[in-house]
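User: Can you fold this complex?
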Amino acid sequence: MESKYTEMLNIAEQCGLCRCGCCKDQCPMFSEILEESISPKGRNALIRAVMKGEIDPDERAVRIAFSCLLCKRDESSCSAKLNNSEATELFREYLLSRGVKPLPEHESLLKSLENYGNPWLESKSARRRWAKELNRRSVIPGKTETLFYVGCTYALDRSLQESPKALARLMDSAGEDYGLLLDDELCCGSTAKRIGQIGVFDDLRRENERRIRSTGVKRVVTACAGCYKTLSQDYPGLSEDVEILHSTDLIWKMVSKGALKFRQFPVVVTYHDPCHLGRHSEIYDAPRLILKSVPGLKLVEMANNRELSRCCGGGAGVKTAYPEISQRAAVRRIREAEKTSATILVTTCPFCVQTLRSAANSVGSKLEILELSVLLGRALEAGRDE
Amino acid sequence: MLDSRNRDSVKRQLIEALGSQSVLWAKADLLPYSKDTYRASFEDENKYMPDFVVLPETTAHVQSVVRIASEHRVPMIPKGGGSNRTGMLVPITGGIVIDTIRMNRVLEVDVANLHVTVQPGITLKELDEHLAAHNLWLTQEQGSYKVATIGGAISTSGFSRRHQKYGTIADRVMSLEVVLANGSVLRTGQKVLYTSTGYRLHQLFIGAEGTLGVITEATLRVEPLPEARDVVLGFFKDFWAANDAAQKVMASGVMFTGGEAYEGHNIQALGAPEGMKGLFYVMLDGIKGEVEADAVFIERMMRESGGTIAEHETAVAFLSGYTIQWCGARALTGFEDVLTSYVPMERIREFYDTLWNDIAPRYGIEPLPGEKYSLDVGRYRMSGGRYRLPKGEDAWQRYQGVLREIAELTTSLGGSIQGCHGVGIEHRDNLDLEFSQVALETMRMIKSTFDPDNLMNPGKKIPDRR
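Assistant: Here's the predicted assembly.
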């Protein structure tokens, strides 16, 4: 057995010795479905049974394997301190390696990745669409030091294209030089990896790495929490040679050195920690410090924040496979945000914005969902016309 | 296990009654229901599987399931959070697990009369979160607080670390609704705490482990959230010095919420002076002035018993960390088991000396570091500890031998085999050490009155006649 699968089984077996079920207290999927199998404890039982040959990975078993947001929220509660998300991600990979078919709901995104290099069934050239209003800043090999890696979702979802534009403006305001790959940008492969498609991921990773290395940049900045997690943790070769930054880190640097100054912007906001930026990457302070640097802005926390932040429900292929459950998880988060006095929920991940915005609309919430750069763009401009 | 013809019929009827989203039969779904946290024999994890799991949401759903099961003579295993330690939830005869976790609604909060009515599947933590909005709490803080349900806590008569002031769940139940084995719905009485009418039927279901019926609703006494809380932490030469201090605090009559004395692992990290191994902490809840005065009084008693009082910030941080672990690091994570023997106060030294100096070496068990002695201080005389399970060829037999000898020791000292985890299958065959044949026969009569066909969690709690 490959060592990564040995590690997976090891996690499942340690869980099998304990079986306390404390994970359920924090698991967003369990709290929506309320079945023991849809919890880290239940999936670990399934991993053990499959690996010991006690059960065939039938359709139901595969459904259970893919009913996880990989959000890591359970791990703060886990008595044995197990990396259950890793075990589940590896289990998906293992099942597919043994000939199990992908979920039918994932097929179109896989075809899209194969044909277009993005999961959104958009043409390759559509990637540059968001940038047409900006000076087209292609990266200049050997000269540009910072690559702004936009990511598929910001670049291709029209409702989110305000985010890369806003971040570009923030960098321009701060005099930060950067370049774009435009059409040459390729999906980081995050979604493929999370749904166990390691072959698809490896192809994307190799090609992405080649393209990024060929630019000779010293750092890559991205506003997407998923891209950031993937580039910084799942591209070991690249991240050793090139600094990978999330936009929150870059913006905080710009704010700290006085390169970005915001105007009076009296709003009350709450911050939603994306799983990939928070629990997966442990970036909790930078976005909060940035928000607190905006004069007049008041940051109020939701009951579950930082390590215990509830997942928006949009991750790891769940939204595609189980849209109704994803929506319920998102509405739960919206309700939590509504209990604060905030009028705006700020976050730093395109999937969180998409998922939470859709949930807020579905329940008629007055809460506005904004990506951090967009909010900061407003704070930069606030009161200019007065 | 059901034969295939019966199985199809039961499945069809269950789906008709509850809908296909509330009936599980695929093996992948049944796996987590094959065991609770009982230290079962280790090699065949999924030896016992239920035929079905049902996830009712209403009392009417439970009634339907019970009627179908009774018609086909299928055993039923009522389930709450699933963290039981004695095998109470292991489906040793197959059957239908009635998982109550979707019965998680709060039905009524009666602030004026200080009680709450809930469905059984709400967890203790969820209920406290709900009650906090009314400035109330249940006070039932057991180790499985995050996952244990009200139904499960009642059915095992769970411990609460706040017991000294508030009692445990056994003291909080005012009235229950129970679906009996014949499908009828029993309401045990009015939602009153004290009454002198009728038999106290609800008491029969406290610690019944699902052998008498399925609890579908509970009315529980709740308390206003205290104005002030504090903790006093003292360090002592060893466990016995900490225990002496604990007994003095007990005898003084001061009202504390709960406390624990134990011989800890590396308590110097908490600021204990070099050489000190014993620790004793006391939790206080109440009116601000009362808590302040009690803290001063307890500190003085600890000092007079040779204790060194921890800095207040240290004590608060200690309790906060300990509380976070309450359903965390304290869960059993390996080949180990935990003691929860109820031992009379004056026999504790005898209990531990015999356990560690006589029983342990004979069976090849050893205490985990910092887990040799621990005592819940208060009227709940629970002597704790953790030990590594025996290893080697006949490990399972030796483990059963350990359990039997600890049961013999505890009962010979006038105590109870199990302070809070119930009987399940782990202690079932040792119950004759604690109860006379008359007492056991009385229990069997009660069981057969409620469940003449022995379908409610059969093979648990009460030993077969010899």
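The longest strand of chain B covers residues 228-236. Residues 106-224 of chain B form a domain with the Uridine Diphospho-n-acetylenolpyruvylglucosamine Reductase; domain 3 fold (CATH 3.30.465.10).
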